[in-house]
């Protein structure tokens, strides 16, 4: 990798394709910078200005054995993680990705079952969406009482 310009470092990640959205620390999203990695990149360290940043969003892209692209989109209410880029150094972001859907079933006062769920991403309050061919996947569920099905349907998440 060419050495970053004076006052700059670099960013690297633990995925092959996707992007990060960062803002200078405490700045609004309209000042965001996107750093992109593609599977064809020969250089995995991306030059980036030194400073303090807030990771606001990320997308990780993968292709399955059938050639279908899957994406994990992560968004948070505000800041997912604080990031410091130091002059002349590489800052590596190893994102924790857990695409396990965690359900939170509840029964209301009328005895009705409500099922909500979330995929959890990096940082508190970060929601993940799993996307196939540019559309959020549909999550189905089935509720069994013993061997009898008492409910089935689709669940909203994110």
Describe the protein in words.
- This protein has 158 residues and is mostly beta strands.
- It folds into 2 domains: 86 residues, no CATH class; 58 residues, no CATH class.
- It is 0% helix and 58% strand.
- The strands form 3 sheets. Strands 2, 3, 5, 6, 7, 9, 10, 11 and 12 form a 9-stranded antiparallel beta sheet that branches.
- A hairpin with a 2-residue loop joins strand 13 and strand 14.
- The chain is elongated, with a radius of gyration of 20 Å.
- The N terminus is likely disordered.
Characteristics:
three-stranded mixed beta sheet; 158 residues; mainly beta; disordered N terminus; 0% helix; nine-stranded antiparallel beta sheet
Give the domain tally.
2
- Binned strand content: over 45%
Largest sheet: 9 strands, antiparallel
> What is the averaged pLDDT score?
82
**SS class:** mainly beta
Write the layout of secondary structure elements.
Elements: E1 8-13, E2 18-24, E3 33-37, E4 46-49, E5 51-63, E6 69-75, E7 81-85, E8 90-93, E9 98-107, E10 113-120, E11 127-132, E12 135-136, E13 139-145, E14 148-155
Parallel strand pairs: 1-8
Antiparallel strand pairs: 1-4, 2-3, 2-5, 5-6, 5-7, 6-11, 9-10, 10-11, 11-12, 13-14
